[in-house]
Fold each of these.
Amino acid sequence: MNKVNIDPNTYVYPNPVTLVGVEVEGRANFMALGWISRVNSKPPLIGIGVNRTHYTAKGIQEIKTFSINYPNAEMVEVADYCGIVSGTKVDKASLFEVFYGFLKNAPMISESTLCMECKLIETVQLPTNYFFIGEIIASYTEDKYLTDGQLDIKKMNPLLLTMPDNNYWTVGEHAGKAWIIGKKLKGNGS
Amino acid sequence: MNKVNIDPNTYVYPNPVTLVGVEVEGRANFMALGWISRVNSKPPLIGIGVNRTHYTAKGIQEIKTFSINYPNAEMVEVADYCGIVSGTKVDKASLFEVFYGFLKNAPMISESTLCMECKLIETVQLPTNYFFIGEIIASYTEDKYLTDGQLDIKKMNPLLLTMPDNNYWTVGEHAGKAWIIGKKLKGNGS
């Protein structure tokens, strides 16, 4: 074993790339976000880690809804731009065709492959960030991203992000069926 | 716009694939986990969503430490196996060379490309899951996974997971530099 210690400020490999939609001061705004995870099975809850200083954090606390929107790899420039400029200075909603769903105040991006509108359930207060937990009220996609009625990641062609080297990546080759490929090891004394 | 509604029980595209290490009833155990996100910048906090019924949830609550271990794509069978069988029935620690770090009770996997040992900071109680938030105390890798001192995802070759279609994927092509490629859009009226 040749383990070396690296900076404990280590990231998830890789982060998915999403755009969080929120209304702030009466305007739709979108922020690039990689800190996201499902956190509960039933009901479907999803959590996002947002820096306390971000304009998006202010909007979510006020309106108590947000959306998650997946850019595809062709949208890499506009997705990155949404992570570079603040909604306090730039009208990022003008970059997209914006639509609304059941919640009426969670702006979503028509060009995205998958959009989820979420209702804020809980805010976890952490030293530099908020972790906002929302219930997924509805999810929107298009038929062209589905195979046999399920989202097909190769058709979605989403972006991945690695930090702190700050690179975007696409999804590569199929590597096996989950909850199946491991069955080969059953019977090896277990 | 041709949006269609799908089941709101929608997932993150894609989830990273990790193995969570914990001591339960005096033994090291490892569970496959895809619900994971960084949640705070300073200090470095990471959160994991674990079903309340899992053996791992019991261990984390008792010992108040856990580890995150990244399998590479060659470990797909053993990683999947750790998600199929429960530590209540199978000694999964015997599948790996296990090592310990500063915390002394967060078992880590020597074969992993990246291991983080974490100290439990907060437990968010949700209807079907716990969301455990831990501080990353130390991170371990090997020189062969680094480029210019930083983790190189192409050398790590981690696994990705999509649900509910339940497929594993590898990381594909480089798609741009984050916080740089979007600068091309600056000046377009913004």
Note: The first strand of chain A starts at residue 4 and ends at 6.
Amino acid sequence: MTRTITHTPDPKLDLVLERVVDVPPKLVWAAWTRPEYVKKWFTPAPWQTVDCEIDLRPGGIFRTVMRSPEGQEFPNSGCILEAIENEKLVWTAALGPGYRPQNVSADVPLFTAVILLEPRGAGTKYTALVIHGNEDAAKKHAVMGFHDGWGKALDQLVALAKTM
Amino acid sequence: MTRTITHTPDPKLDLVLERVVDVPPKLVWAAWTRPEYVKKWFTPAPWQTVDCEIDLRPGGIFRTVMRSPEGQEFPNSGCILEAIENEKLVWTAALGPGYRPQNVSADVPLFTAVILLEPRGAGTKYTALVIHGNEDAAKKHAVMGFHDGWGKALDQLVALAKTM
């Protein structure tokens, strides 16, 4: 179970955020895998993440509840696929906990997120690869503000990591 | 990555085939994970499995091409989720290789298959747990002949294992 695949992004189907940040992989890992931290950075302000549950093993739950500035809540229960400490986290919205296929309408764009961490001096090369099933889903996610949103969230993650 | 979840079937959403067979886990494992064997037992005759590709690691491909007695071919590219030698194999049709969400219409009932092997004397307690997203998908799969089909395929697997 330790061998892992290499991911080659498809430019038509995938969205990628890559950046070198000045906090080490172990703190980025903690920010991504401990619910009390996730709630502090996961959604760009003024959105909030008001609840989070993580069972950090293949098949385990990755659940968040995001709240809009107007107070509307958006619960998501995804599934952890890989958790290689300080290196690689994979979770998907296409499966629920225990690998159950999601019961959602076809126009909800489901994705799988691959978070890769590599040491760069005292910092981390951070890669978020977001994998979609078709071009329409990828475009919708891009238009919804993927790069701005995931970038701002990463800023929040880094600021949080510096307080750990 | 070695910790694995415990699966509790949901009677409304899941289908289960459980049987003790008189071949050891390592032969059942070989039959499930080597394409040249899968092609020989995976589909109840007179259906055939005419092609198979397996990359036996999380995120790797699990692809089969089934052919009906009339010659119509049904290709499926799923994704391996867990591969614990001689013990547990999990693959899903809800994700393609590399964990890409499938681009299929909502009326295709997607499932995740969990194959569990436990030694029983010189044989194996074989459990196939098939997990669906909703009751309709589970019912469709049951009506399509899940128990008869997976049972006959298991008979073929056991007959093959005895020739290994």
Note: The mean pLDDT of chain B is 94.
Amino acid sequence: MNIEQKNGSTVFKKTSDYKPGRNWRNYLIGRPLQTADAPQQTIGKFLGLAVFSSDALSSVAYAPQELLLILSVAGVSAFHIAFPLAIAICILLAILILSYEQTIHAYPDGGGAYIVARDNLGEIPAETAGAALLTDYILTVAVSVSSGVAQLVSAFPALFPHRVIIAVVLVMLVMVINLRGVKESGTFFAIPTYYFLVVMYLTIIVGFIRFFTGSLGLVPNAPQDVLNLHQTLEPITLFLILKAFSSGTTALTGVEAISNGITAFKEPRSTNAGRTLIIMGAILGSMMLSITYLANKMGALPSEGETLISQIARTIFSGQGVLYIAVIAATTVILIMAANTAFADFPRLSAIAANDGFLPRQLTYRGSRLVFSRGIATLSVVACLLIILFQASVSKLIPLYAIGVFLSFTLSQAGMAHRWWKSGHLLADQQIKERGSTLVHEQGWQFKMVINGLGSVCTGVVMCIFAITKFKDGAWIVVLLTPLLVLIFSTIHRHYKNLAKQLSLDNFAPSPRIAHQKVIMPVSGVHKGTLAALRYAKTLSDDITAIHISSDPIETKKVQEKWELWGDGYRLVVLDSPYRLFLEPLLAYIDEIDAQKQPNEVISIVVPQFVPKHWYTSLLHTRTADTLRRVLLYRKDIVILEVPYQVN
Amino acid sequence: MNIEQKNGSTVFKKTSDYKPGRNWRNYLIGRPLQTADAPQQTIGKFLGLAVFSSDALSSVAYAPQELLLILSVAGVSAFHIAFPLAIAICILLAILILSYEQTIHAYPDGGGAYIVARDNLGEIPAETAGAALLTDYILTVAVSVSSGVAQLVSAFPALFPHRVIIAVVLVMLVMVINLRGVKESGTFFAIPTYYFLVVMYLTIIVGFIRFFTGSLGLVPNAPQDVLNLHQTLEPITLFLILKAFSSGTTALTGVEAISNGITAFKEPRSTNAGRTLIIMGAILGSMMLSITYLANKMGALPSEGETLISQIARTIFSGQGVLYIAVIAATTVILIMAANTAFADFPRLSAIAANDGFLPRQLTYRGSRLVFSRGIATLSVVACLLIILFQASVSKLIPLYAIGVFLSFTLSQAGMAHRWWKSGHLLADQQIKERGSTLVHEQGWQFKMVINGLGSVCTGVVMCIFAITKFKDGAWIVVLLTPLLVLIFSTIHRHYKNLAKQLSLDNFAPSPRIAHQKVIMPVSGVHKGTLAALRYAKTLSDDITAIHISSDPIETKKVQEKWELWGDGYRLVVLDSPYRLFLEPLLAYIDEIDAQKQPNEVISIVVPQFVPKHWYTSLLHTRTADTLRRVLLYRKDIVILEVPYQVN
């Protein structure tokens, strides 16, 4: 123990011996972990791809289908536009990958859109990026799980009526897994991701072989439900094409995941992360193109009942055999893994934002398993509500999705562009330490600025297209929600800043020592509890006034007689309450005393409170202390003490 | 001011100047009344009959109809049994009136079943009477209001689909009137009651004249809905007759009202009350017989759509003219008045029972208008629930009704019989002061005992008949509920008795004066709020230990540095919490200190608590003091002080 340090204060250090016991929560989510147990493992490119790409790669399970779904209002003949649109999406993907590769090198400690916007664009853009991302993580869970369930339902149509409950149960399962704490490394991620890659490429390759050898026919019994909805066909307008393009861009969600998690990579981590990003981009692009092409050629149709992946798989593998089941299983699992990614990102981002004072501080608290449990719980609950509200329909959820992602892309790239501009205006040996990274002068900053600028403009344009074309279908919810969230974040931030300022000890002159305590003790009856409170009150001061609010003369007489016997000679004020009120006369009396108070005096209200053994019996008593506390908490220099007297 | 009384205590007396302000509640229920404003008016027989008879007299609006309804399962031919049953009911009424007349003289201060059972039979019978009566007051409201609405619906069939909502609105209206406080006197009661009497007797007299002159035909278009329900007729069994008899006895509910309200009568109050009771009995009996007889002769049929009263009125007055409307209006109003009687009785009885410790004490509190507001609110809410549950159908509510009344009759009369036996065994000049009355030797106690005994046996038999014949139709609810309520009352009573015993100062030896305070002050950060708490803590003791639970080393370092600067040299214990918990390590530490405590020491936990201006911002903070208080309240000799620091 280090005694008598510096100006005389004595600081003792000790580690608590408290060990959490066993209970149902530990049973469900595992035994509590010590802070020192936090894993510090890093991973290479092979595992990195597995850990961070499930969100992006799984998009191919729904993006081509949603693209076709939009075109279907113009009839089957419009489907020939799908492949050119897929190529446009891949060009956008390439621009994004280039942009993000630069971000990864600039922010080796993690460069999510929120951090980049905060450091380079300011508070409001940071809040906007935060709001957009948090909204989109929730939608990632809802869309991915819904799409996963849709794959299952394609293989087992009997499950169709139960899809909402299955989706909710899956979200809960992922929640519990995340509350236990997933190690973002290792084979847990690698096996399903690589399994998905192998199965998907196998499907695509077999598909192309059969197509070029001419043995690939059309989808047998392709589901007609969506086509039948449109009796009169709409013309192919620019609006329709842009709307279809927007739906297809949902394939790009999840591309930013690696930039959030750079610290998980082995050194040189920026290089490793950057290369992983490029590999992921190549895989995603090739899959997107292949699936759209094959689906088109084999006449697969978008449907609520059977997914495009299911139609492709059963056509390529000629029926619902082992390989078909393998494709469905792989797709379902990768979609659930994608939801799992959001479960890593949402709590982390909300903790960062909470630490910056934009969200309630409680979100920074790490639970017993070292995860941000409150963020995890919030995410699960909201995602489940969305799933229930939208009946686990991917097509209904898609219009809300991806606006947030593209908004965050735009802000992130704009922030990066601004950063390059700042970097270009530094001297060669100058360094600026920002919160998320260190800024130095870089060669070729103009070129890099152009790349990020291009990325920002492109994604910005896509976001606008998305918001406009999907506005009526549900995008309006996000368009309204995002500014509302920004407003909430700002309000919270202002509250915390104001609080910190008011509590700050800068230029603080301590108040004079308290010279005198006035004790007021409300007494409803004289019993052991009252005397226990009086015994305590005596240690505070000799200026004690017991006060009895009288509305029943018989009761009052008893109190008075007993006080004369047991009150140790202290003052008893009997305050007659003609309206039978208790609180108001007492408060009026306290006000009176308060008005005469000296600056170095404090009023202590000592409330005798007997505490019954069982909490529910408190329904049989008026809890005076609680009521008084609620009211007096807002009054300066009044302290309420509840002296408990335990009754068995 | 009386200074220095008896053993040196100083008692000051004062009347609070607090005047309640204006708010929406005052606007709704009127300005608050001072306790001294309580009315002390007494009334004579004429007004007494009006005030106390609405419950009893209004029963004729449903009792004959419900009697016929039961008989209808055996077809129209069974209706000839109705009149003999009505005579049997009148004989029972006569016995009851005789019995209660004796109660009124024995209990000039009010002799409700609860008081008579409590004073003469003991605790469990008193609780049973209380439970039975409280249940039945609720049913009185539900049945009377439902029947009132049924009268309205008979005249205006278009209202039928809205009957539940009309009934609920009426209950709410009666609630508000009662929360304002009804003066149980004056013309408010006299006008509708005497209006009802005049209109009913007019109807009956005109009916008999037309019947005996042969000009009274059958009911035109008598409603067939109930008859059509029974395609196959049941035989007339003893069970059926007894069941019909039970339904008819609901006419006797409300007979006990006068015995509850004797104090409201002018002196000689027992004589006045007794005579009023006899007059009421005569009116009730004559109406019951007349209506049953006339209904039979004119072929009126029980129905859900049109009441018997409506059929009789439109037959006697040949159509739905002014006189018909007058009858419907009078019946509806008297039924609402009957509900109003329950609103006087339920709160009064629950306050008496609460004062005896069988119900939560809060029920004894008189609201701003000097009425037992909480009892009134409880009654309204439960009655409305019943109305909604039973869709305002009198026939569905009737099987639950009247068992409670007859149980209370039985207990009350049995108590009276026992009282006469006690009275007979006193010496001529002996007096026993019981809680509700004074017991003296009375001449002819044997005869009086026989009368009350007969009343008890008769009502007991009826109660059993009622419970058995109606068991399946809903009586089982009451049969199960009553013992459950008795159990709850006993449990509450035991709790209060135990509490009083534990708090009692009999044979109490005061604890030694507190010699030393150990102050523990949890500190999460060092700011103005912390220093305000420290300033207060210094007035308690010099033995102050600040304790910081550390789960973030950076935060801890800041706290430690600031404490060294501002902590005035007091101890700071830094308690490292490896599991990031706050409460548990702190409690473990307090336990440690607690274990070493001397008997004359007390531990005070001083919790600094900054108080934001708006309550809702408290969502953004962890309210440590609240959590600690909840846990430490149950620990002996630990006091929690929350020192508030107000932030603007």
Note: Confidence is low (pLDDT under 50) at residues 1-7 of chain B.
Amino acid sequence: MENERFNRGWEKLKEIDGKAGENVIESLRDIAPDFAKLLIEFPFGDIYSRSGLDLKSRELAVVAALTALGNARPQLIVHIHGALNVGCSKQEIIEVIMQMTVYAGFPAALNGIFAAKEVFGQTE
Amino acid sequence: MENERFNRGWEKLKEIDGKAGENVIESLRDIAPDFAKLLIEFPFGDIYSRSGLDLKSRELAVVAALTALGNARPQLIVHIHGALNVGCSKQEIIEVIMQMTVYAGFPAALNGIFAAKEVFGQTE
Amino acid sequence: MENERFNRGWEKLKEIDGKAGENVIESLRDIAPDFAKLLIEFPFGDIYSRSGLDLKSRELAVVAALTALGNARPQLIVHIHGALNVGCSKQEIIEVIMQMTVYAGFPAALNGIFAAKEVFGQTE
Amino acid sequence: MENERFNRGWEKLKEIDGKAGENVIESLRDIAPDFAKLLIEFPFGDIYSRSGLDLKSRELAVVAALTALGNARPQLIVHIHGALNVGCSKQEIIEVIMQMTVYAGFPAALNGIFAAKEVFGQTE
Amino acid sequence: MENERFNRGWEKLKEIDGKAGENVIESLRDIAPDFAKLLIEFPFGDIYSRSGLDLKSRELAVVAALTALGNARPQLIVHIHGALNVGCSKQEIIEVIMQMTVYAGFPAALNGIFAAKEVFGQTE
Amino acid sequence: MENERFNRGWEKLKEIDGKAGENVIESLRDIAPDFAKLLIEFPFGDIYSRSGLDLKSRELAVVAALTALGNARPQLIVHIHGALNVGCSKQEIIEVIMQMTVYAGFPAALNGIFAAKEVFGQTE
């Protein structure tokens, strides 16, 4: 049954994060292989696979939270890609980042916008 | 035109935050009346009034961000009410808080769940 | 096998957090039963059950991190109890909190010391 | 010379934080007497006693930082008192907290305003 | 009247942030032009333009807060320049960053000092 | 007696942080020599020199806290080196970082793992 959880997580990770997600897992294999396994199993196998909230809303919420926290730029980049992958529009992503001016201030939102600019530039 | 912005913000604040929002504004009138005015004009008149992202997604993103930041419980309470006010289901709110285990850890998510428990208890 | 993970987590949670941990799980059962299950399975079944670092060092590290973050007082209280439960001395707990003056400033450390004072007062 | 540092810190702590500062020191004496000593020596003996920036600017900066961090309300209360003690006006304190809307968001600033409201209510 | 607010903000932004501020606005024009407009109108048109606290104190407070938050280095750089632009001395800037050792720890302050070193190196 | 404190701190800094610590001090000498002195005296002379908790536990706690805060990568790098210098194994360091998934989320822990990967790559 653990296998099922891992497999479900692996499929979900590829659906959301695509190649960038696979690269993160790959880069963990030598230093912390158990971390790679847990990263697939818990966030993607246990959480993202849940029903009750659509993937688009989950990804917008994650972009919002990572923008507000402001201390995890690589993951924000991955999840702006992820938001696009699951069907969010560029406008929706920009709006949710702009919303963070109110809750985390302008510097956090500004750095979020610049992260989006980097991602959008790669996907055009 | 400033008046228009204030009025638009005031209507939006009442739509989202209801009585709780009005109480916050009221409690600011003696100590910082300009802050009350700016709180209506910028977050509600300028940001929440924007098109490009529906109010439900905005509120779920705000609940996510305030859960992740973990340092503004009164505002988290207000916005869990707000999410219900604009049509989010209790399940969607719980899901977006649970999603934060991955991005901000279990204590932040747990405190978010307890905030939701308090709000849901008042609205049943 | 999921069952094994849950059971291992449940035993570990009781070992570390004791009655306080059971109370948290209990308080989640009506509002978010899946969260209760995940809280047992991932933190306690997957992480705390790992070898490679003794429980005392894990708990001191958790007290340090929660003191530094400064936004999760209820969980800090639970883990100061937890640190005592797994064999840390009061002096070791005070020292690890004082160490945080350097990494998160005096207010965070001071609030950690007051949390310890509350816990130690209950356990004498 | 250590004595000199302690004495200089003690005088400075009383000048800035007044009775509230003395109470903090007193409350540490049983649980962490060395922390009390270090709190007098480093923040007050080493830092606040420096020349190169006047006390008013130091206290306004501390009120700004504690408002922005948003996770140390008791210390924010102490330093709003402190800002008044060293000659800041209520208006200056409100302005510096409002400034934080831009850098840490409206919830952080709002909680700062409410802390100021509590302090000003006690000092009128 | 909106125009007046925008113009007031634009003048204030140039006064405080100079060319660096204009560059930020320019870099937003393609990805999020509304964000550029709001950044001029709210922080600079509404907040920095207020009376009740001099610009030097505002900038020192912003340097303090961004140092303490520690997650917005580009904006800290801009505001160390800004503090110099409105008349703060290098010594005052160093002092306000050192003050943050007490409230946010040594790593945050150290990174603030290195940001100042970078800015001062460009302005000599 | 101040001299004694400085000397004790200097020896402790070299023991824990080695050459990297000396480089930090050196890089402060022109911009903020007093900060360099205080950095030796307080964190290393006053805190790390205390008895009551062994250096290995102190360093693991610091790695945990800096991983959780997620906004001080250069210092996290220094203290992963420091943990190795005082006798922690690579496995213990990886475990304490993985523990932070629970308390600060996966992005913070992931960035901690990548910091460890960088350090371990330099020390093999």
Note: Chain B has two domains: 1-50, 51-124.
